[in-house]
């Protein structure tokens, strides 16, 4: 069934309109038969009808437009009769556009009638509709494109017509199929009677974005039942204020006329709380089923029986709004056999898991408004119907911030917009400042309901912890911390997800939460003590935390605290009075907390579990510091060593990035719960602690500790360690041998450790290792000892003479990065990659290797291969067929890529300035290799021998970054290589043939399109033409030749990837598009001469006589001169010739509806 997108009169369905029905039709098609009979039937049924046929063309257009607009405005319903020739009438198409443009503004319903036409032909502009549009388009182009303004007008009109037809195809309509017209008309009258007799539910007049957001729900309602049940159930869920009820009403109004019984039960949650609430709901439903008959029900069981009997297998649309308990829905499931086939039930709820999985149903989560929709909705409520641009400009400095704060929540946009309407700038500024601290009650109360409906205080407390401390953090980390705080975190988070209070980012696994939901949770905590912050359970606001610490007002209630001194705007230096003024400083760097925050400020906070500090200086003894800490996050910790009395016995995670530590602690410490230790960017750290007292440590992160010299040999005691990162520890000299004892280690990162001189010789014992990052290790330092006798003898088991061992890596590896290691070709040829059968990601970039080892063929699971900036590789061969991503950027010596190295056709070979062939993608070779007859027949080149002797062409590789951009985006690229890359002049070569998929091209000096081209254009780079419809209709189009002439008024300098010329070819009739960005292109000799780009396109059966085609030459850096097109038929071309084109059958012709453009490029 087509998607219904009806508009409807919300204020009155029966009064205030001059007409019941507006009838649009093509009179020549149906005016004397079907439409005439329909109009008569409408009038006989008592419906006042306005006929808007196309027979009034003789009257003034202004009068007709005025009358038409008024008739549409004054009609309750518009009926459009789509017949075979409807689209041939510009009058009918203008009517259609007017109806659709005014349907929302004037709230009328629309019923399309598809009279012997397929709705898909309207949607896809095919059949008679496509032909009619093509005729209109050709007429516009031939007659009305002389003035730019007039051209734009007709192009816009044509676009409106096409869009209107596509939209109309998605309206719920009625199709005449294999039935008598009289029967069909009776059905139409019944539908109209039903729609105009049932009152639509009220929806606010400004429902921005409702069509887009309702589309998936509406589509579900209209989809035929797909299971064995008579009914289908859809849960429409989301946070409060997101618009669930409004969407349900909208979809109900669109569809109630298509069901025998339609019922919308509102406010079920509130009603069910009342005495006998469920019985009240049963009475409402039963009354509708019995056509408003007054009913009596004394018990729930009795109600179920009566409802079941009243259903009588009728097709029902039932909307249950605001449901929080499953009882009513499950009772309906029990009556499923009594519903008629095709019945639909929509349930709006805040609880995504309201129903048991065994009860077959679908779930749709309502999303927020798009930014443009949010702006429109807020502006409507803040500035009224007029949406005055002057007012918006006046408040511009505040508009963006307040709309951003609302984060696309319709309720917030409505409430805040209405509250600011007509207010001064000062009030706007004050309101925004208040919103940052205290959200509006009306919004909070709506959102808070979801919190109050949580099952128990466990989930409520978990939610408040997440709101205050953990939004944006990794789910795994949050679970790790909160599980140690006696939470059942995983099930709790799932409950919050079901209530739409929390989401998990599917890509990075972060905890996400709508900002207003987060603010609602924080407001709940704020209301615990609105005046004394120290009595709150959680202190997330930096200023509150600072004041509590400075005033020493913290209490036992405090469970967590956040303080980032960079977020404190004004901090007193001294309180010396100068008249009525006090001296203040806003520069944090001039202030020390020595006199303001001391350790005794924490003495009463016995329940403190989460401490998140940044740049905080705390003085005093830690003897009485809270001992229940689970998460210690102190970025910029100011001490050189953690004091011995600091209580850490219960800590699960220590995060002291950017600290001043030189060593973590003195001596031995036993921390049985510690699982994560992160000291990244502690630039003064010299050594690591004794690890023997950390039996449960799983992650050790020491990245960018630039003064770290060695790692304590007790690291081998960490039998649960899974991740060890020493990235960019530039002074690290060695790894201890005990590291080989880490049986659980999965990730080892020593990237950038450029001064390592020793690595253990038995790293092959790391049998769990999956990821090894060793890029940037200096081979000069390792060559004497490590590289040849340890790392490269990693798993050497006597496979050859000791002087020339095979190089092995652990078989368990999934990821291996040995980029920028200065690997010599000799050393690399000894690498046995074949044993790493689990490897799926391999990075060899930046090494001076000549080719890949044969063993790479055995990597059957490899997906990604990076050889970027391997500037000595000439041929890329032997890459396994399973590899889907090859990055060869900057391989300036690369000439040929084998067929197995697929890579990305554009992004995989940037700056490969000598690349002449990527097998299966493109190939550049001398023009003389092509059969002369092929060139003569398809490209008009008849003097090949003369051309080859006398002509030289300047060719440029078309995928090159400019030098400045390359330095910024690829800083690892060697400076000498950059210089050589951009100091090269264009290649001076004899004429070449360039094969792309289904297209072959050549670039020759030339000033104009040859005379043998059928079409020639000199005034526009974008042309349209209709393929001739010859009397000899059996002729088949085989190809097109395109000639594009351009010149360079200024010296060529590349500025980006798509810097060269391009040709766009479009078959408008079939909506097929090709874009050719050549791998190589020609440059004129000077600013006075031109280049002629000749190309032949093998279109085969994709073009037919009568098709309208568009050809566009895009010169980019150059100046357009001329464009020519010639059509070739199969019977005109040479048969049975031997072609050297390696891609003659590759031109793609399997276009889908979603992807109609094919990019032919490298």
TrEMBL record:
Location, primary (coarse class): membrane
Topology within the bilayer: Peripheral membrane protein
Subcellular localization, as worded in the UniProt entry: Membrane
GO biological process: defense response; signal transduction
Record keywords, A-Z: Coiled coil, Leucine-rich repeat, Membrane, NAD, Repeat
MF terms (GO), sorted A to Z: ADP binding; ATP binding
Segment forming the signal sequence: none
Cellular-component GO terms for this entry: membrane
Repeat as UniProt keyword: yes
Limits of the TIR domain: 17-196
Annotated protein name in UniProt: TMV resistance protein N
Gene: LOC102595223
